[in-house]
Fold this protein.
Amino acid sequence: MLEVVELSKHYKNKKAVKGVNLYLEKGETVGLLGPNGAGKSTTISLISSLVNPTSGDVRLKNESILRNPEKIRNILGVVPQDIALYMDLTAKENLEFFGRIHRIKKKELQRRVDEVLDIIGLQDRKKDLVKTFSGGMKRRLNIGVALLHEPELIIMDEPTVGIDPQSRNYILETVKRLNVEKNITVLYTSHYMEEVEYLCDRIYIMDHGEVIAAGTKEEIKSILSAEQSIAIKVEILKGEYLQLLQALPNVKNISVQDPAITLIVPKKVNILKDLFKLAEETKTNIISVHIETPTLEDVFLHLTGRQLRD
Amino acid sequence: MRGIVWANFRMLLRKPGAFIATTIICIAFAYLLGKSSFTKVEVPVYSSLPEEEVNSIIEELNKGDAFEFIVEDEKEVKNKVAAGSAEAGVLLEGSSFTLFQVGNTENFHLINQYMERYYVKRLKEKAVIDLAADSNQAFEKITEVNGNQLFQLSVASFSDENQWVYDPGLQSLFGFALFFSIYTVAFNVVEILREKQLGIWDRLILSSTSKIEMYVGNLLYCFLIGYIQIALIFVVFKYGAGVDFYGSFGKTLILIIPYLFSIVALSIFLTGIVKTIGQFNALVPLISVSFAMLGGAYWPIEIITSDTLLTISKAIPITYGMELLKGATISGLSYSELLYPISILILMGVVMMGIGIRLMERRHV
């Protein structure tokens, strides 16, 4: 359905996106993962025709949209990272306004507004001003606006940032339902690995403006199939202990979430003995040790050297 | 486009505070500074003449625009003058009058002149009636002569740089209306920048609405809100304070159109050159106050003698706005005679809007 070919965007002092290739099949949910500054939002702006690329192409149903952006705009709904709504209008008025600028006919608009209010669960608050809404409700309405003109493709740029777990679940379920029931294609970016794992069929991982890994969840996890993840919880984390762990020859990656440490090591290597020995030497009390199969988070750490939320 | 105008008006109805506040402040400033020409000076009067005669004198005296004579008892009149709540009090007699005063004021001399003129005329008429054989016929003749002057005198003058008429009421009304409208328009235009930063503008770009419609919708709203404000202020002064627009009230409502067009363009130009809304908020008062001072909104531009300041004023929309409004009212100029300031304002508008929109389009956010 959508194909991005060698897409690049260079600003004066910065190469924001460097030769990105990705594709979306009809009805798929694809995740775009990356830490802050990875180039996700610029890639989204390029795909949605808001920004012109320095080079490369975006092709919709085998036709370039660069010269004729209306093609993608007519079938695209974008949920921006920020709450792009009028705070002094009610939920219904916001939907009516954005419906009008999409040139939805009056009778049809009322039907669509009602339908969207049902989808996002704000029917009972439709007459309330948006500024009185909670963060989660605003996020839901932010999504609702992108659904008004019944798009075939939705691009969601971190739609669950800064909201409570209940609203987050509601949004995830809504996205899943839209994908399954209405066969809407979704490009979903997030900081939350579990959201992407839950929603997406395929994943692209971006860092420093480039796609550094792509594939299904299983394919990406298989990058670390020969490794294991060891999570050590300590009473008080000492710098000396950390330094000694880093110096171990088989440790491929180490991340710290005080008072826990996660190590990526080859499966075949038995490192436990060393861990306890070093703890004894540095007088560090180990509370627990968990050996796990690497998660997407671990793969991400392995690939970028950073936590997703860094 | 209509959707954008609709949404903006909806939001104005939800939050009309700023609009109402600037309108009220503008009315208050214009009223206070032009007060002397909007209100009549009250003059308390007493007399021992028969009531019918006193009423007839008062009726004649009150035909003037400047003073309102009110009959009271002697004690009250003297108390008012002594307390300073009246600048002068008058004792009316058949063939003379007495003025009471506590201190010398500008209005005291004017009241004195006015009363003298009235009594000279009154005594002349009385003398004619007394000398006539038929006093009733003489009275009718005098009324007829007063109604149909022997000579119809009309005065015409060519206005030039050294001759100008000053109407303090209209000066302050026009000056403050044009000045405050800059705030109203500018702080609505900058909402485009805010919408860009919030991502609303991106949503509009991705819709079926074209960019031209987006700009026209937003700028049309800003124009309309400025227009409504100025029109409202003019209506309040015309019908509330009875300000004389020299029969050109409708014309003034048309002539504010080119001025507001240039102000909308100026605002989009400023929005284009600033980097943040904070910068814009700091720049607008600076620009508007200096424009008002140099453009003759606070005081008549005719009193400025510096060639440098006068040259600078040629690049300021308020100068031409004031020229239009004062030209149409005080000087009674026709549209064709006002074509020059109209053209300048339109030219300024087109240039600044062109540059402003281009700068807006080039900025990242």
